[in-house]
Amino acid sequence: MRQFWIFIRKELWHILRDRQTLFVLIGMPVAQILIFGFALSNEVKNSKIAIVDHARDIASGELINRLESSKYFEITDFLNSDHEIEKAFKKGSVRLAVVIAPHFEESLKHENKSSIQLIADGTDPNVGTTLVSYASAIIGDYQNELLQNTKLPYTIKPEIRMIYNEQLKASYNYVPGVMAMVLLLVCSLMTSVAIVREKELGMMEVLLVSPLNPFFVVISKTVPYLIISIINVVSILLLSYFILEVPIKGSLMLLFAESILFIVTSLSLGLFISSNAKTQTAAMFGTLIGLFMPTLLFSGFMFPIDNMPVPMQVISNIIPSKWFFIIVKSVMIKGLGFASIWKETLILLAFTSFMIFVSVKKFNKRLDIA
């Protein structure tokens, strides 16, 4: 056991002496969580819109003020006619045009109805649909206030509530996804490259013929990255809670334990890649292409898995980050306990056991050949 700790200390000092690599290991997770948390968002804010107010009365003015005070819209153009709308879209100066019909207030008072036309730029359907939804919600709230003192027969008013994320913040979805992606890439990439580097330098054979069991030799290479990854988990959770304002509703100890399990899973993936790669370039290519793209596509935090064809849904089941993403969302956002995530935990344990078993077998073969 003393030899095992000596191997771990040697690897840890090797990482600490390499300041650039250490900076990447600690700095990359912080940078990615901030970039994804603030830059990547499915919310559409401060979109430039144009107003065509044919009524120019008190009611239309109140509605325009509500649109302007919203964080989603910025009124940049007040157009005089409908013919100017297309010109504004062609210039790319606006994304949405709101056309208020003539005699807007008078129609509301005497006929209890009026019309507002919403014209959106359909070159980006998702953004266009989102802007129309935002504007419709604001108009609907204004309409409800006007109808407070008016009783209409058979009025059906749906009540909408978004549980777990009442404000619909995109960071609630991106933080668990980025957490899974960062830990998977950092752990697997650095572990695979570190071990393959030993192969290229001819040092792996020296380590494998040492008195220490090959299993402990392999594990000792991963322990320093386990320690660094735990530090990354702490920094990600602190940034998420204090800067991105993502709550931790469930057990912090359970979340931390599941994170350590996923780190071990990612390290075992790095061992698996290193046992099959012959060069550092091949290890990096295998990690970035073989893990980064599947994590981005099949983990569920960028694209809904339910919308994918059945074969792709089946493929997503072999992506470890998918299961960790479910675990983090369940514990961190929903506040659930172990009883709700035991299946995902067992799947990660199975992944880890299989990868470590195959990796040690590979290294044992190298020892037999040597």
Give an overview in words:
The chain is an alpha/beta fold and 370 residues long. It has two domains: 227 residues, no CATH class; 100 residues, 3-Layer(aba) Sandwich (abc type-2 transporter like fold). Helices cover 66% and strands 6% of the residues. It has 14 helices and four strands. A four-stranded mixed sheet has the order 2-1-3-4, with helices on both faces.
Radius of gyration: 28 Å
In helices, the fraction of residues equals: 55-70%
Structural class by secondary-structure content: alpha/beta
Please work out how many helical segments DSSP would assign. 14
Q: Termini, distance in Å?
A: 24 Å
Number of spatially distinct domains: 2
Principal-axis shape equals elongated
The order of strands across the largest sheet is 2-1-3-4
- Extended strand count: 4
Residue fraction in strands: 5-15%
Order of helices and strands: HHEHEHEHEHHHHHHHHH
**Biggest β-sheet: count, sense, barrel?**
4 strands, mixed
Mean pLDDT: 80
Low-pLDDT stretches: none
